[in-house]
Amino acid sequence: MEDAITKKRMLSGIKPSGDLTLGSYLGAIRNWAQRAEEYDCFYFMADLHAITVRQNPADLRRRTLEQLAQYIACGLDPQKNTLFIQSHVHQHAELGWVLECYSMFGELSRMTQFKDKSAKNAENINGGLFTYPSLMAADILLYQPDLVPVGEDQKQHVELCHTIARRFNGVYGDVFKIPEPFVSKVGARIMSLTNPTAKMSKSENEDTGRVLLMDAPETIMRQFKRAVTDSETSVRFDKENKPGVSNLMTIYAACTGKTYQQIEEEFSGKGYGEFKPAVGEAVVETLRPIREEAARLMKDKAYLESVYRDGAQKAAYVAEKTLRKVYKKVGFVAK
Ligand code: TYM
Hints:
By secondary structure, this protein is mostly helical. The protein has helices at 2-6, 22-33, 47-50, 57-73, 91-100, 105-109, 112-120, 127-141, 155-172, 217-225, 243-256, 260-266, 272-298, 301-330; strands spanning 8-14, 39-45, 81-85, 147-149, 180-182. The strands form two sheets. The chain has a three-stranded parallel β-sheet with strand order 1-2-3. A two-stranded parallel ribbon has the order 4-5. It starts with a helix and ends in a 5-residue tail after the last helix. 44% of the residues are buried. Ligand 1 binds next to β1, α2 and α8.
């Protein structure tokens, strides 16, 4: 408790809308785990967000638990981090509604993710998909965090959260702390291996361009061997003209800690035939302990249950304080 008072706070979440990928790990979870000592951390499985796209209920349930096991396996110690399932903390949906009333139609219409997802799900452009960023703002503002670590694709949503928070504070005084998005320098945008101009996404059906945290080493090696590169032979970082090779370099840098210059030197005079399997091997070694530990944890349902129950209780305690304040400010009668 003493720690919670003196430490700064950090919060983030991932939708269990697909199995976690190397992109989710390098762009998000890895950065979270590195900061557990410094910050009081809240991380959740964003199941409320997942249903903006139609989900198979059994898969959603499995993935939510698997995601928790993977968070822990990636180094998020439940003793040091508050890990919880979003739908277990009802304050998210409640503040989400209030903030919808402070989010403008024009702002929500301009969100890139809304435009992309509407194009991909033309038969299901539902209200939740549209107001998603208001719920995400609620996820953040309930906990008054200092920092929100996300990959590049979520930055726009965190910026809209600022706008909503400022608008609310402008009317009611300093209710919300304005958080900072934190986008790490390496790994903020891992691209598909087969289509390196598109993000590696967990919700895509095609299984060729992505690497899953739980993939077997042989699968990972196969994926990297058939990664798209270009007609040159040199390993050189040039995002615009060599998106495939640059993406592989980003992955290799993130897994080994090497700089782009060191990587260029390491593979100078060597072709992609050597480079691609080397990246694959670095990924296999990075993911191996995570996969093994997550598989072990998935067999211990009682432990996972104790973690998410405990997490929800701690999260609700913090969230409720903010929600009470908001309800009072907007003029709701106290219970
Ligand atoms: P989601 O589930 O799409 O992605 C979770 C996190 O992983 C990052 N990420 C990537 N980073 C690098 N390369 C990639 N290929 C890649 N794919 C995903 C994302 O940027 C994100 O940080 N709306 C959020 C979940 C959310 C949330 C929140 C996040 C709900 N409420 C509150 C922060 C705070 C989402 O859909 O992320």
